[in-house]
């Protein structure tokens, strides 16, 4: 594998203009010198990654793993329809993924499984020398966060947290504005995951997002495992969609770091009310006690003096929003209302419509390849996050969103749980870089490669 990776690295083309769109594939790659990728988990999310991988000319999907035979059948059909070679198949039991990791013809893996498997599978992948990409969140406990960092440092193998919102078009435009000092010295951020997930946490056991109030063994897709976290944990269990982009704007782990956090939770009535409304007061699930508060609010302070407010709001009726705000000494952006104010440029005390500003500071990647990305999923974000993973894996170099980021962002879940349980007591963030955040340079985001 090392020799294959060296070949890939030595024959890579620096300019993205030499790629064949929409797959971003190197024209110089022969069929024998592609990156061999295995997928662990081919449910709805894993299948989305599979579809995007199959568009690329520089990737072979050589192996797939899932304990659900129906999902294996669906994945094999996608590969067959794309004229790909029949992959090796694993899924005889929950640990069969380890046999996939033992394959010589797997260079990198994408992990899209239920949350409790993310860290153990990523650690096993790095131990096996496979470049790992893992869906969010990467870890559930502080011990798991350290497992990611320690395994990466011990083995020298890389992993990337596949946080696609970092690649959202407006987010990258605002990052460009932050880097160009449009807002002045940054002071405060807000973000979160505010998304009515009642139709995801419950269904009828037949369709992934159908009506119904079943979960656990009687549920299907995410309701089979995700809802259990709301039963047993009073925590912000899904922080990275909002926090990831903000952490990059604030140079966290690269000149800055999270210092401490306090969290509070409202009462939790939303999921119970939904069960009663859709299934009736006599439904067995109406007796379930949900531990998670409906609205969880956390405040982080950073080494450089910024504050970050994170909101988790998934159990009540509401429109979707990640609630972004980026505020500096000279102005700010707020995603809700699509508005920007810059002192000296905007009319005093009046918001500007954000879009003209976002167009002016549009990210080079989106300007060059946006039209090809839009059909990749999540408005095009999936196209760019997968490209960053593949390009980093081909060269066997550190990805833009690395093990230290995965650990720091995911640590919000256990720290919020501890803080809520102790009446909002501040919780110190571990320094997962062991002091190297002071010396690490920020990733060069403002480029048109990846």
Descriptive report:
This protein is an alpha/beta fold. The two termini are 23 Å apart. The protein has two domains: 35-165, NAD(P)-binding Rossmann-like Domain (Rossmann fold, 3-Layer(aba) Sandwich), CATH 3.40.50; 167-364 and 402-438, Dihydrodipicolinate Reductase, domain 2, CATH 3.30.360. It is built from 16 helices and 17 strands. Mean pLDDT is 93; it is low at 1-32. Helix content is 34%, strand content 18%. The strands form three sheets. The protein has a nine-stranded mixed β-sheet with strand order 16-15-14-13-9-12-11-10-17. A six-stranded parallel β-sheet has the order 5-4-3-6-7-8, sandwiched between helices. Helix 2 (44-54) packs parallel to helix 3 and helix 5 runs parallel beside helix 6 (142-155). Residues 35-159 form the Gfo/Idh/MocA-like oxidoreductase N-terminal domain. Keywords: Glycosidase, Hydrolase, NAD. InterPro entries: Gfo/Idh/MocA-like_OxRdtase_N (IPR000683), Gfo/Idh/MocA_oxidrdct_glycsds (IPR050463), Glyco_hydro_109_C (IPR049303), NAD(P)-bd_dom_sf (IPR036291), TAT_signal (IPR006311). One of its GO terms (molecular function) is nucleotide binding.
């Amino acid at each position: 594998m090392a020799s294959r990776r060296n070949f890939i690295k030595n024959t890579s083309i620096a300019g993205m203009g030499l790629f064949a769109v929409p797959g971003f594939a190197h024209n110089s790659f022969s069929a024998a010198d592609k990156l061999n990728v295995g997928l662990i988990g081919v449910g709805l999310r894993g299948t989305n990654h599979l579809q995007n991988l199959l568009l690329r000319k520089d990737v072979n999907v050589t192996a797939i793993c899932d304990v659900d035979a129906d999902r294996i059948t669906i994945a094999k059909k996608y590969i067959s329809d794309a004229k790909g070679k029949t992959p090796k198949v694993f899924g005889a039991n929950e640990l069969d993924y380890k046999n996939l990791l033992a394959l010589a013809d797997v260079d990198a893996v994408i992990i899209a499984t239920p949350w409790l498997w993310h860290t153990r599978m990523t650690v096993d992948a790095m131990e096996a020398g496979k470049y790992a990409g893992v869906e969010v969140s990467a870890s559930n406990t502080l011990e798991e966060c350290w497992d990611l960092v320690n395994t990466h440092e011990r083995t020298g193998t890389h992993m990337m947290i596949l946080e696609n919102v970092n690649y959202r078009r407006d987010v990258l435009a605002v990052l460009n504005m932050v880097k160009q000092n449009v807002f002045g010295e940054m002071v405060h951020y807000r973000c979160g995951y505010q998304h009515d997930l009642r139709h995801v946490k419950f269904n009828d056991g037949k369709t992934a997002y159908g009506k119904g109030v079943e979960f656990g063994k009687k549920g299907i897709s995410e309701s089979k495992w995700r809802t259990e976290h709301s039963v047993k944990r009073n925590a912000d269990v899904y922080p990275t969609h909002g926090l990831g982009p903000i952490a990059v704007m604030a140079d966290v782990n690269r000149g800055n770091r999270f210092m401490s956090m306090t969290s509070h939770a409202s009462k939790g009535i939303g999921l119970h009310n939904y069960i009663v409304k859709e299934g009736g007061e006599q439904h067995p699930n109406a007796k379930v006690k949900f531990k998670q508060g409906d609205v969880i609010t956390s405040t982080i302070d950073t080494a450089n003096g910024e504050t970050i407010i994170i909101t988790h709001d998934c159990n009540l009726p509401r429109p979707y929003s990640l609630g972004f705000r980026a505020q500096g000494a000279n102005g700010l952006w707020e995603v809700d209302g699509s508005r920007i104010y810059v002192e000296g440029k905007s009319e005093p005390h009046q918001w500007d419509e954000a879009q003209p500003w976002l167009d002016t500071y549009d990210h080079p990647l989106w300007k060059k390849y946006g039209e090809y990305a839009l059909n990749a999923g999540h408005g095009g974000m999936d196209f760019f996050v997968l490209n960053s993973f593949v390009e980093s894996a081909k060269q066997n170099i550190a990805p833009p969103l690395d093990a230290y980021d995965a650990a720091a962002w995911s640590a919000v879940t256990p720290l919020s749980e501890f803080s809520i349980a102790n009446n909002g007591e501040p919780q110190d963030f571990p320094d997962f870089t062991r002091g190297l955040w002071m010396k690490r340079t920020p990733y060069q985001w403002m480029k048109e490669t990846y």
